[in-house]
Amino acid sequence: MRVDGQVIVNSSPQLINAALEGMGLAYVMEQSVKEHTAREQLQPVLMDWCPSLMGFHLYYPNRRPSPALAVVIDALRYKK
Predict the structure, then answer these.
(1) What are the b/e assignments for 44-77, b being 16+ CB within 10 Å?
(2) 35 pLDDT band (50/70/90 cuts)?
(3) What pTM, to 2 d.p., does this model score?
(4) Is 39 among the domain residues?
(5) Domain count, the chain
(6) What is the rounded distance in angstroms from the CA atom of residue 68 to the CA atom of residue 70?
(7) Residue 5 lies in a domain
(8) Beta strands in the chain (DSSP E)
(9) Is the residue at 6 inside a domain?
(10) Are 33 and 16 in contact (CB under 8 A)?
(11) Which domain covers residue 59, as residue numbers?
């Protein structure tokens, strides 16, 4: 299949809007298009080749993180 033209965007929301307008495929985080796939406005494709995010990994130099780093760790641990 020959495809003419290209679209260059700077952010995921712009990329999602282009996909919603039928301009092509968008490679974005699944969570960011959850509502659109639920309403069947977008369809996931190539799911066998999509990596899954197993979570965040954080490495820091000593056993006691600084107060600022402790806040980041708590924010990453937060679950809805």
Answers:
(1) eeeeeeeeeeeeeeeeeeeeeeeeeeeeeeeeee
(2) very high
(3) 0.60
(4) yes
(5) 1
(6) 5
(7) no
(8) none
(9) no
(10) yes
(11) 12-77
